[in-house]
Amino acid sequence: MKIGDKVSGKVSGIQPYGVFVDLSNGEQGLIHISELKNGYVTDIEHNYQIGDRVIVQVMNIDEYNGKVSLSIRALKQLEPGRPILHKHFWTDYKDKIGYETIRKNKHKWIEEALAEIRRNK
């Protein structure tokens, strides 16, 4: 087994931080909650039960302790989510001023930061 391999296994334990999987080669690995799916995972136990068969990708094998990190998310295509209804801009795009405000104030901000650093020495 090496990093990047796609392997099958059986869910052997469920914790709030992830799912433990007994792999077909006799080793055990962990699918961290962030690697279960794209987006927010509301309830692991609702989606996974002990004994479930899963296909996972090996993300990492710790060379010191042999722990195996797994992912289901890496095998899934990115699913389109809710469309972005509005974007957050650093500037007011309607006024077409771009980064002009930052350019005008940058020198003052730098001087203020340097003065603060000098005071704290």
Automatic annotation (TrEMBL):
Gene Ontology biological-process entries: translation
Sequence ranges assigned to domain S1 motif in this UniProt record: 4-73
tRNA-binding in keyword set: no
SMART domains linked to this entry: S1
Entry-linked Gene3D superfamilies: Nucleic acid-binding proteins
Pfam families: S1 (PF00575)
Gene Ontology MF annotations: mRNA binding; structural constituent of ribosome
GO cellular component: cytoplasm; ribonucleoprotein complex; ribosome
Keyword terms, alphabetized: Ribonucleoprotein, Ribosomal protein
InterPro entries assigned: NA-bd_OB-fold (IPR012340), Ribos_protein_bS1-like (IPR050437), S1_domain (IPR003029)
PROSITE patterns, per database record: S1
Ribonucleoprotein among keywords: yes
Similarity comment: family membership: Belongs to the bacterial ribosomal protein bS1 family.
Name used for this protein in its record: S1 motif domain-containing protein
Source species taxonomy: Bacteria, Bacillati, Bacillota, Bacilli, Lactobacillales
